[in-house]
């Protein structure tokens, strides 16, 4: 079996948004969708993709050295992905939200 895709892990909720958004864009560009215009599906999928990318940017890996204390005898290294917003991530979040709102408006007003 090919092991080139084993490194792709979906560990956080924003990874799911990126995968769903990319899959939606590819599906809307490849197939003729029933019940929704392809342009509306592309706009909504791009919005989901941008929100996922923005949150991925806003959740960078952060590592901290903890000194020894009563609760953690020898100290240690703590790492995680807490939210740390920056300009580009927030810009992608806003762009994604606007695209999702536009697609909902267009879908609700479609004939």
Record keyword descriptors for this entry.
55% helix; mainly alpha
What's the layout of helices and strands?
Layout: H1 13-30, H2 38-58, E1 62-66, E2 76-80, H3 87-108
Antiparallel strand pairs: 1-2
Radius of gyration: 19 Å
Low-confidence stretches: none
Q: Give helix % range.
A: 40-55%
Major beta-sheet overview: 2 strands, antiparallel
Describe what you observe in this structure:
By secondary structure, the protein is mainly α. The protein has one domain (13-108). Helices cover 55% and strands 9% of the residues. It has 3 helices and 2 strands, in the order ααββα. The chain has helices spanning 13-30, 38-58, 87-108; strands spanning 62-66, 76-80. A two-stranded antiparallel sheet has the order 1-2. Helix 1 (13-30) runs antiparallel to helix 2 and helix 2 (38-58) runs antiparallel to helix 3 (87-108). It is elongated, with a radius of gyration of 19 Å. It starts with 12 loop residues before the first helix and ends with a helix.
